[in-house]
Amino acid sequence: MSSQNLTIVQAVRDGLYTEMNLDDEVLVMGEDVGKNGGVFRATEGLWNEFGDDRVIDTPLAESGIIGTAVGMAAMGLKPVPEIQFSGFMYPGFDQIVSHMSRFRNRTRGRYTLPMVLRAPYGGGIRAPESHSESKEMFYAHEAGLKVVIPSTPYDTKGLLISAIRDPDPVIFMEPKLIYRAFRGEVPEDDYTVPIGEAAVRREGTDVSVFTFGAMTRPTLEAVENLEDEGIDAEVVDIRTISPLDRETIVESFKKTGRAVVVHEAPKNGGLGAEITATIQEEALLYQEAPVKRVAGYDVPYPLYALEDYYLPSVARVEEGIREAVNF
Amino acid sequence: MSVLQRDPQDQVRVLDEDGTVVGEVPDIDDETLVEMYRYMRLARHFDTRAVSLQRQGRMGTYPPLSGQEGAQIGSAIALDEQDWMVPSYREHGASLLRGLPLKQTLLYWMGHEKGNEMPEGVNLFPPAVPIASQIPHATGAAWAKKLRGEDDTAVICYFGDGATSEGDFHEGLNFAGVFDTPNVFFCNNNQWAISVPRERQTASETLAQKATAYGIDGVQVDGMDPLAVYSVTKAALDKAKNPGEGEGRPTLIEAVQYRFGAHTTADDPTVYRDDDEVEEWKAKDPIPRLESFLRETGRIDDEGVEAIEADVKQRVADAIEAAESDPRPDPSEMFNHAYAERTPEIQAQYEEFEALREKFGDEGFLRE
Ligand SMILES: Cc1ncc(C[n+]2csc(CCOP(=O)(O)OP(=O)(O)O)c2C)c(N)n1
């Protein structure tokens, strides 16, 4: 299978293109996704390729976008609505939690919604207010949704195709900080990466570091730096926030006995809390040190002059790992 | 008869494209007319400089207003001291008139929270970034004034054509109609919501006619005609405070205009719109239009224009200088305003944060 060297945002585009070619039922909709190709260019060229009925510029209305996608999906189409920034999902939040997540349950399994709601999320790009939040846990808390967050171009395409083929609704959050930060090999054909499986990015024996999305990079960097200090860390990229791959988490922890969780979302109620609880429930007797969370603070995401101070830095991650190891 | 009593399809105009009077000139004194012109020039020059600062990496993403000065200044200058303004993110000119210094606007777009610190006595809400979300606030604010018996106060709220598609627009206007609140809803219909044209927002013939659904008045005005905008806004504000027999307080104004530049500095409009269209609208530029009227009527001459030009440049240069020499925000500020008092949890996070900064120094702490 031939492959291309793509960025994450190009991999999103390639995933959409690949699946739209294979399946006539797949369509893309949202604000500026058509002629403009999306404000991040994630849908670039699709409108020329597939036309007005499959790549739809909608009115500026998130509840309308998500709500009509719910109706389309109930009729068997596979809509992939884009919300321009995850900070603007809230006008459609009612549709997400009242309907998108519950359609299967409410119809006792008769109907489901094979839709994928995509949105760029997270900070670090010096964007204006409301453009940088990391609120993935709102959706992870809601039963009936799957929540996927890729961190590499290969995973992005494979997970997106899995999400589109999934019979249940998926929230696909794209870490925009690394949309164009690097490239990776992405097969041209269709392939899938399974939803619900974490990936071990680096094996190690001293401590397990759990992370996802844009934070995988500073985490890997911190871990590399710590090699010099003789710390051999394992890095697990969670990839699917919900359902969580508890098995991989617990297995890794049993091996190392120490854990650090790194995420940019606020610490309170973040994924770190869930991972910590899982470790407590399933591997208490292996535990050598308290689980350390390196996270965003419990304050509103600051305007960009201070965002570098808000986001976990390499130094913070390193220090978190040291704390867990030196306990 | 009030300028508001007309069909929402029937656009109010005072000056035509070359500044010739084609409607009823509102009753404004000469000084205010010249101020109107000065502020429009100030807004335009500020905008040009702001875009350039962004290009030079001295400012973050910025939403330009060029083309919309007539609507912003023509409406804001109609407000009384005690009135309130609820802006979107593009009303740098209108906010300036309301009392927000240009330096603050620059700081905000430079990513400093401090840009949102309103000077004492400035009746202005902070810019709202989520589209249409400020509209119900404006209704609530006006409702509060009514409930408290402050009948001399109205609230003007700005938003774009795209905003009229959001639920918040409909809910805000519906409440205003039901509770008869002293609101002026001012829609800056600049034809585009990023790349999506007005026709993709609604199948309604006008945006002004949407008022009918909520039982309030709707009026369409030439938004590039500052005198027409002034007339309509003044009439709407007066009615909000002092409605005649059988009249309702709220009004929806649709100001038809154009954004000359990009949606924001992150946007490339050549992908979705034609140069011809831009040129067509540039011919309607509100600034030469007002200038020509002021010259024709002897209110201003070359000398006056030059003086204004010099003044405008100085003010903008001063504002940039002031904003750029403002100290960088103290990182600990981040922990200060989530609650009236830091919660124990936030206090603990703050202490850990400071300890690490202390240990590594800022450079080490922020190392990528
Ligand atoms: C709820 C929400 N959805 C999407 C966006 C992203 N966005 C920012 S401005 C904009 C277009 C706004 O157009 P319009 O309302 O006409 O106002 P204009 O910018 O033209 O003044 C969009 C889609 C947003 N800020 N808020």
Describe the structure.
The complex is a heterodimer of chains A (327) and B (368). By secondary structure, chain A is of the alpha/beta class. Chain A has helices spanning 8-22, 46-50, 62-74, 93-100, 103-106, 136-140, 153-165, 216-227, 246-256, 271-283, 307-310, 314-325, and strands at residues 3-6, 26-30, 55-57, 78-82, 116-121, 146-148, 170-175, 184-187, 199-202, 207-211, 233-237, 240-242, 259-266, 292-296. In chain A, strands 9-11-10-13-14 form a five-stranded mixed β-sheet, sandwiched between helices. In chain A, strands 5-7-6-12 form a four-stranded mixed β-sheet. In chain A, strands 3-2-4 form a three-stranded parallel β-sheet, with helices on both faces. In chain A, helix 3 (62-74) packs parallel to helix 4 and helix 9 packs across helix 10 (271-283). The longest helix of chain A has 15 residues, at 8-22. With 368 residues, chain B is an alpha/beta fold. Chain B has twelve helices and seven strands. In chain B, the strands form two sheets. Chain B has a five-stranded parallel β-sheet, sandwiched between helices. Chain B has a two-stranded antiparallel ribbon with strand order 4-5. In chain B, helix 2 packs parallel to helix 8 (226-241) and helix 5 packs parallel to helix 6. The relative contact order of chain B is 0.16. The chains are: A alpha/beta (327), B alpha/beta (368). The interface between A and B is large, with 47 and 55 residues. The structure holds thiamine diphosphate. Thiamine diphosphate (TPP) sits between chains B (90, 129-131, 160-163, 188, 190, 192-194, 263) and A (31, 60, 62, 84, 88, 91).
